[in-house]
Amino acid sequence: MKEILLLNGPNLNMLGVREPGVYGTLTLQAIVDRLNRLAESLGVGLESFQSNHEGELIDKIHSAYGSKHGILINPGAFTHYSYALRDAISTVALPAVEVHISNIHQREAFRHVSVIAPVAIGQIAGFGADSYELGLQALVHYINRSEG
Questions:
Q1: What's residue 106's pLDDT?
Q2: For the chain, how big is the Rg over CA atoms in Å?
Q3: 68-120 tens-digit pLDDT
């Protein structure tokens, strides 16, 4: 069975509370529950991890090397400046899809740039919590197409 690592960066543990007009009312756990159901229907395993600490996310990416087939990541604010996360994703050379609940390209100018995007196979933004499901479907499709 193919295994996917789902990573969520800083402040995403506060979904449902944090700016519901921007990020919606679903909690991170509700999103993960939806993704687990989708992963099962797609025939893949899903490991979920959230941290507000850059180093913990990097360690999780490193641990995916040799054990996961892809990474689905919402880096949160690290999207815009974490070259360390970018380098970790590049180092493990696993296909990664970057997802965002809001459309980062319609928001404040500092949110328009992603340092993660150049090492991701794609980016999905602006579809609310559905961005995660769209991202997982795209990632699994990419993996299956690449391997078969």
A1: 73
A2: 14
A3: 999 999 999 999 999 999 999 999 999 999 999 988 877 777 677 899 999 99
The one catalytic residue among 62, 100, 112, 132 = 100
The catalytic position among 23, 62, 105, 141 is 23
H/E stretch holding 144 reads helix 130-147
Q: Quick one: which of 49, 76, 71, 86 has its CA closest to 139?
A: 71
Handedness of CA 28, 34, 37, 38 (dihedral sign): negative
Task: Give catalytic status of residue 53 as yes or no.
Answer: no
128 within 8 A of 101, measured Cβ to Cβ: yes
**CA 147 distance to own-chain centroid:** 21
pLDDT in tens, 35-47: 999 999 999 999 9
Q: Is 128 exposed, middle or buried (0-12, 13-18, 19+ CB in 10 A)?
A: middle
